[in-house]
Amino acid sequence: MQPSPTIQVLSRYSQNFHPVVAFTPGKDRLLQMDFTEGNKLLTAAIFEDDRRFTDYIQGQLQDTGSRYGIGGYGEHRTIYSRSAHYNSGDEPRRLHLGTDIWGPVGTPVYAFMGGMVHSTAFNDAYGDYGATLILTHQLDAIRFHTLYGHISLPDIEKFSAGQYVIRGQEMAHFGPPEENGHWPPHLHFQIIIEMGIKDGDYPGVCKYSEREKYLENCPDPDLILRMNQYIS
């Protein structure tokens, strides 16, 4: 199957993108994180407790000498049972649609290219994004969006719809649990082709039965991040 126009254009320009987080290949280590039921070390007693979950993430990074933990695109995750936000309706949502980068509170987040603020929101339900920024971009007449979830609340207070960001701009930071939906500090980074009528929000987790539709609209974020090649 031919890649979508968005995937093609992102692949074409990938070498020109600014890093979304500071990372030095060959020096900094990346740890692949696993939040599926196959990870027997991550028990419900840990991920249902904010402090213990944060300690688990930080311990994993410290024990392996890793600057960041990373992963999650297309991953079927056990951890969403911690929040009613993902458990309503006839089928729980468990399939993750973005890439998570786990690290310290306050870690800077940079614009990978120029863009315009589509919308912001404080999605404050337990387990949701918390502070959220969505940008709109255009490359070779192809329009798409990027979502930055679990950032710091002051970050979104400085932006308004229609405002522009420039490539390399330090525009956000990993937020603390009380501002990021009560998660360990991290960035949820997601590509979205069509936003529809969504404003300040877009599903970052979908029902498994709807995976094809959502994964088609939300391509692999590593097209922009270009970090998976460095996972050790």
Q: Tell me, what's the shape?
A: globular
CATH C-level class: Mainly Beta
Stretches where pLDDT falls below 50 for ≥5 residues? Answer: none
Proportion of strand residues:
25-35%
How many domains make up the 3D coordinates?
Answer: 1
First CA to last CA: what distance? 30 Å
CATH architecture: Distorted Sandwich
Helix-strand pattern: HEHHEEEEEEEHEEEEHH
CA radius of gyration: 17 Å
CATH homologous superfamily identity: Glucose Permease (Domain IIA)
Helices, by number, come to 6
Helix content: 10-25%
Biggest pleated sheet: 8 strands, mixed
For the biggest β-sheet, the strand order reads: 1-2-4-11-8-7-6-9
Protein model, in words:
By secondary structure, the chain is of the alpha+beta class. The protein has one domain (5-230): Glucose Permease (Domain IIA) (Distorted Sandwich), CATH 2.70.70. It contains 6 helices and 12 strands. The strands form 3 sheets. The chain has an 8-stranded mixed sheet. The model has no long low-confidence stretch (mean pLDDT 96).
Supply the key terms.
232 residues; alpha+beta; Glucose Permease (Domain IIA); two-stranded antiparallel sheet
Write the layout of secondary structure elements.
Blueprint: H1 5-13, E1 30-32, H2 44-47, H3 50-64, E2 68-71, E3 93-96, E4 99-102, E5 108-110, E6 115-123, E7 130-139, E8 142-151, H4 153-157, E9 164-165, E10 170-173, E11 186-192, E12 205-207, H5 211-217, H6 222-225
Parallel strand pairs: 1-2
Antiparallel strand pairs: 2-4, 3-12, 4-11, 5-10, 6-7, 6-9, 7-8, 8-11
